[in-house]
Amino acid sequence: MKTHFLNVVTITLTVVTLLFIFIGCNKQSQTAQDDKVIKFAACKLKVYEDTTKVLAQEVEKLGYKLDYIFLADNTQLNTAVENGEYLANYHQHTPYLDEFNKAHKAHLAAAFKVFTDRAGLFSKKYKSLNDLPNGARISVANDLGNGFRAFIILADAGLIKIKEGIEPIDVTQNDITENPKNLKFIEVDYTMLAKAAEEADAGFLYATIAAELGLEFGKDALAGEREELQAADIIAVRKENIGSEKVKILEKAYKSGAMKQAFKNSFDGKDVLLPAW
After folding, report:
1. 52 & 131 share domain
2. Residue range(s) defining the domain that contains residue 43
3. Which candidate, 96, 93, 215, 203, places its Cα nearest to that of 150?
4. Are residues 222 and 128 in the same domain?
5. In 215-250, which positions are buried (b, 16+ CB within 10 angstroms) versus exposed (e)?
6. Is 133 found in the same domain as 71?
7. What's the pTM value of the predicted model, to 2 decimals?
8. Count of domains forming the chain
9. Rg of the chain over all Cα atoms, to the nearest angstrom
10. Which in 50, 52, 92, 136 has the greatest CB count within 10 A?
11. Could you list the mean pLDDT of each consecutive 10-residue stretch along the chain, which spans 277 residues?
């Protein structure tokens, strides 16, 4: 009887031991898998969706998996990285990121540059800025990272004058000192720029947004932004993750010939986006 009891105890202990070993191995296996997963949040717009899918293929070639999601809200995209839910996001340039950090006391930084989306003023009604009538309505972005751009373009073209000594990024409507054509400015959310430009006499657009309206930057822009003010889109991460292994993998995968081709493919072979590396 005693021997039988000892045998049962021995078998039980063996099963428990094997179970712990199995659980431990599974945990180690899961940890190893998680170490090869890069959580990535991208903007829910065609160009970001198209290029993210190619990026996932390039990441896989390097032995990692890109676990990505598409979100339409810019604040949500940044919050998801700030709170650690995702490692990186793909939707903004540095001026926008800087404003987000200030407003939300966040800790995001540019890991690396990805592409330049040139900006300019476009119109479906007029062929030149000089053709704009008195009182013409100009649509502009209402956020600090983008809003100043239209005013600088108009000032460079001689249609308005702005206060001297002010930094370009700080320029708002209130800094216009002369407006001889009495231009009217319609401030809209970034996501509404395309619709606003169609309804206004002219509007501020990035080349990617203009392409959605059938307009080409090189052919249809009434005026373009100064090159030194062009802001490249970036991959953003929390500051402490810059230089980490996964971010290095992302950068290597992104800066590939396949991604350059993906830019073209997303716009039917046209050079809408310019690689920023």
Report:
1. no
2. 36-115+234-275
3. 203
4. yes
5. bebeebbbbbbeeeebbbbbbbbbeebeeeebbebb
6. no
7. 0.79
8. 2
9. 26
10. 92
11. 53 53 51 82 94 98 98 96 98 94 97 97 96 98 93 98 95 97 96 95 96 94 96 97 98 98 94 94
